[in-house]
Write a structure and sequence with these properties.
By secondary structure, the chain is α/β, with parallel strands linked by helices. It is about 40% helix and about 15% strand. The protein has a single domain, classed as Rossmann fold (3-Layer(aba) Sandwich), CATH 3.40.50. The strands form two sheets. Strands 5-4-2-1-7-8-9 form a seven-stranded mixed β-sheet, with helices on both faces. Strands 3-6 form a two-stranded antiparallel sheet.
Length: about 230
Amino acid sequence: MRSLFFASFFATLFASGAALAASKGPVLFIGDSISYGKFGEVIDSAMRKISEKVVSEASCGSAPATWVTMPGQPGHVYEKTVCGFWKKEQSEDLPGDRSKEHYTPKVEEEIQRIHPRITIVQLGTNIAAADDPESQLPPTRQLMHEIRASGSRCIWIGPPDADSLIVTREKLKITDEMLKTEALAQGCFYVDTLSFTSFPPGPGDGIHPSPELSEQWANEVLERIRLVRHFRY
C-alpha cells in the first residue's frame, strides 16, 4: 500500500507542468548542522541545476520546533543558534553567508516570501537527541502542515545514522518511524536516510560525518530523488 501511495504521489508531484525542470519554480531547502556542511552544499548545488531560484538555510541544533510557531503561541519567537547558520540565496558560484550566531527564521514566513514550488526539509538528528523523540511530533506535524497548506510540494530528508551516546541508534529508529508515518499522512515524500547510511567508528562526535562522507550521503539522497519521473538535474 505504501509503495502505491508513493508512486501516485510522485506521479502527481512531478507531472508535466509541475516538475521543477519545466517550471523553474523556486526551491526552499532547510536543515540542521548536517546541512550546514558539505551535505547541504551538495543538495543546494543540485537544486540550482533545475531551478532559477533556490534558498538554502541551515541552522545548527535546530529541530522542527525551531522553524515553526505552534498554534496558541502569542506571535513568533525566534530561536538563536550559537553553533552556526548558513544561508545561500545567491548564484551557484557564491558560497553563501555563514555566521556562528543567528536567529532561525520561521518556515511560514520564508514560504510567504519565496513561494517555493518545492520545500525540502533535512531535520531529524536533533529530534533523536531529545530524551523522548516522540514528544517532538506536534511541531513536526505543524511544519509538514505549513508546507502542504501553502501549496508547496514537500520532501523530507530523514536523519542519517550516528554513533553517539546522545543520538543513539535506538532513538534514531524511533525518530525515523515517526517521521515516515507522519510524512505518509501529510503527503510529504520521505527519504529514509537511516536505511542506507552507516556512521563509521573513530574519532569525532559520532553525529557529524566528514565532508567526504557527507558528500557521499547527499548524493545517495539525490539518487533516490532522481528516481522520480520528470525530476532532472
